[in-house]
Each structure stands twice: as structure tokens, then as C-alpha cells.
Amino acid sequence: MQAMLLAAGFGTRLKPYTDIRPKPLFPVLNRPLLLWHLERLRQTGFARVLVNAHHLAGQIERAVAGLPGVQLQVEPEILGTGGSLREALPRLAAEPLLVLNGDVYHELDLAALWTQHQQSTHAVTMALHDLPRFNTVQVRGRTVSGFGRAAGALAFTGIQVVNPEIIARIPAARFFHIIDLYRQMAPLGCIGYARVDGVFWQDMGTPADYLDLHRRLLGPGAWRIAETALVAGSARLAGFGCIGERAVIAPGATLSDCVVWDGASIPQGCYRQRILTGDPRLDSQTQGAIQP
């Protein structure tokens, strides 16, 4: 089985944090999200995984270097969700491709999605759920019928299985949104979907979303502290949060609902609902920027 992780985007809504780290490498419970994805794919049986990169591509390259079965596709120009798949076509086997957005945390049963696609006659199977904030995929029966806000519409999780002949229809060597192709295909009834309501899924589109993901994963009053982190005895931890590897929390510091990145050094002070990167300029710039 083969898969592709889309990790090339700019993460515009997460600026200025994405100025120093690509969104798929944001730590989730002190581990880069990209590595969470790759581990789950390996455990599920996806022996071949292609990761694309553009924004801060060198960091993605270092993160996947030496991982068995993982190939990197560096794109000098941003190609979009469709253009990246078309660029990957020569590297793909003649079998369906599982495609995942590298900036979404989820606990979907990927093997079940793959099996459903294999057992169907559809050229594409999209994983959909009911999430009003993102409900723009229209369905009729067991197929996708269109795109746009409408009664009964569902939300695309960013996870899908695509046949290679569909990827071959994408224009080569230019930016292209895969949804633009799906708009043409939907009236033909060749896009199926899997309903995955109730499965843990969280977009990391904004700083508030990123913190909310940790709140949901950790629960109230819970902290995950890396073994190599140094937290002063007089530091106070409230709410929820994570402290990454080799991070240093100074005496007298108070943290509440915070995620402290690896290697960060946090001076004395009070920090609430913050992403703390360890970059003094950035951390000062974003003080108070994340709202409840």
C-alpha cells in the first residue's frame, strides 16, 4: 500500500509561527505531527510513503531523513493539493494512493478507508464527517454530488484514496487544486465517501486550534513534560500544556494552557494560552495574540 503526506503549504493562518517552522513539524504532545502520521502509516501497513515539501523544505527533509520507506518530493514552486499529486505520479505504483493533509491530527482507521475504496467502484473515496464549520461537500446516496454550502453537506477531513488514472488527469507542472477536478467529476457519480463521524479529528489551522488540540488530547489540568526538560521547582503550571525536550522554565514562571517547544528557554513571567517557541522576538510579538 502507498500513501502521500501533503506537507508543502505555507500555513498562512498560523503565522508568524510558520515563519520559523512548517506546520507539519509543529509538535503535538512533544512530537512533530509529521512523525505521528508516518508512524501510524507504518503501523497500518503503508510501506511506501511520499512526503512533499516546499515551505522551509530543509526542515522537512531533515525530519524524514533515513526513515525506511519514506521518499521526499521537494517542490521548488508551490503546486497545490492537485499539482503535488501529479508531480508524484512517476514515483507511484499502479495502485490507489492514500492522501493525507500533513497538518491535521486524526485517529481515523486508515486500513478501513483503504478497504472500502478497494471494494467500491469509485475512482475516489473521500473521508467525510459532520463538522458545521467546514461542511461544504454535498452528498447524494453514497456519492459526492457537489461542493458548496448546502443542507446536508459534510466536511472533508483532508484524507482520501485516489486511483492513479485520476491523478493522471491533473495538469502537469503547475499549481492546481484537486477540488477543482472533483467539481467536474462529482456530477458523474464517480466520487464515493466514507462517513467517519465520531472519530477524533482536529484541524491545526490557527494558533487557537493548535492549543485546543492539546486541550482535547491532554484533558483539563494535565501536562506532558519531556524527560530532558528543566522546570524550576518554583515554576507554576496551571491548566493544560506541554513542555518539549531541552526546554528550560525559569524560577517564578507561571504557565497556563501553553505549549512550549523543544529547546525553548522561558524566563520568569506569567504566560497564558501561549505557544512559546523560544524565539524571543517571535514570543514577544505574539504575546496576548491567542484568544480563549
Task: Please tell me about this protein's structure.
The chain has 2 domains: 200 residues, Alpha-Beta Complex (Spore Coat Polysaccharide Biosynthesis Protein SpsA, Chain A), CATH 3.90.550; 79 residues, 3 Solenoid (UDP N-Acetylglucosamine Acyltransferase, domain 1), CATH 2.160.10.10. It is 24% helix and 32% strand. Helix 2 links the parallel strand 4 and strand 5. The chain is α/β, with parallel strands linked by helices and 292 residues long. The strands form 5 sheets. Strands 1, 4, 5, 6, 8, 9, 10, 11 and 12 form a 9-stranded mixed beta sheet that branches. Strands 14-16-18-20 form a 4-stranded parallel beta sheet. The chain has a 3-stranded parallel beta sheet with strand order 15-17-19, with no helix packed on it. It comes from Desulfobulbus oralis.
